[in-house]
Amino acid sequence: MRILDKYIIKELLGPFVFGICAFSSVFIGTSTLFKIAQYITKYGASVTAVVKLFFLSLPNIVVLTFPMSMLLAALLAFGRLSGSSEITAMRSGGISFYRLTAPVLIVALFVSLFAVAFNEFIVPRANTAYNHIVRYEIERNTAPKSQEHIIIKEVKDGNIERLMYARKYDEATNTLQAISIQEFENGNIVRVQNAETAQWQNSHWIMYNGTIHDLSTAGNLQRTMKFEQQVMPITKNPTSIKREQKDESEMTIKELKQQIKVLQSEYVKSSSYEIELQQRVSIPLASFVFALIGAPLGLQPQRSSSSIGLGLSIIVIFIYYSIMTVTSALGQGGALPVIIAAWIPNITGVIAGCYLMRKAAR
């Protein structure tokens, strides 16, 4: 690595760390602490539970601040170098603007890749633990009495043996509604059971008014049977089933794909999960997009002031997330294809960044 690259990266890292701390503080102050205060006043949450919630909320917040911090870092770093005429000196020495921005874009790419991994392996687990504390330690029996789209997977030696879907679970009556169970052997579906309802009785789930379809390994229908009452092959009790259910923020990319596949097989709308799946990659990659925008913007006149750089970064962030909010809503509503809706903000940012880079290089 050349001395010039080290120098530019050093200028970048300080504002980047500052941005993570500053933007995280904003999220914590406006959202996390407010929620924690509600849990204390409404449910009487203990100090231990509150401390756990605070630390478990940090991964989800930090990963959101990476793109914002990269934008701020690029703006402040190039703004300072431009304000002290160091950029002018470098370019007069024959170094192109594209070469000057190379270390920034490389760092931004590494930050993006790290954010994708962090968003996959750390954030879902932290969100699961956070929601578990809220549901079962703080809210307890005051939580909603029903859940929709129940999915249970039974896996043995890495292979799925049984997959159950129920459209709704009613805790008041311990009843599952609109059940579909798929049984597998060596990765192939060999049996499908459907039932109108199932109720927990005497340590078993009893299904009512359903059919059983036996399939060959090639997927051909071999036999169909109807039943009025049948013991369900799923042995998990209602408490276990409730605790296994996850929302989008608690799932990994693999789990999101499985959830989407199951919902689509039951002809249930899955756009919210599809948007979440795409944004697991698109939002972390915004770090690279923001670096592409921030570096040339930092060269604009009067950008040496950190307050101006911070203000400009807030404007860019507001525009980006406004576009993301609108397109996400359009994608979930079906007005736009999900993949387009999720990536429009980044595509727009790349176009704007390329234009600004080309303009700054002249």
TrEMBL record:
InterPro entries listed in its UniProt record: LptG/LptF_permease
GO BP, sorted A to Z: lipopolysaccharide transport
GO CC terms, sorted: ATP-binding cassette (ABC) transporter complex
Membrane spanning residue stretches: 12-34, 54-76, 97-118, 281-299, 306-323, 335-357
Residue ranges that the Swiss-Prot or TrEMBL entry lists as coiled coil: none
Localization, UniProt: Cell membrane
Keywords noted in UniProt: Cell membrane, Membrane, Transmembrane, Transmembrane helix
Membrane topology annotation: Multi-pass membrane protein
PANTHER family reported for this sequence: SLR0882 PROTEIN-RELATED, YJGP_YJGQ FAMILY PERMEASE
Name of the protein in question: Lipopolysaccharide export system permease protein
Source organism of this protein record: Dendrosporobacter quercicolus
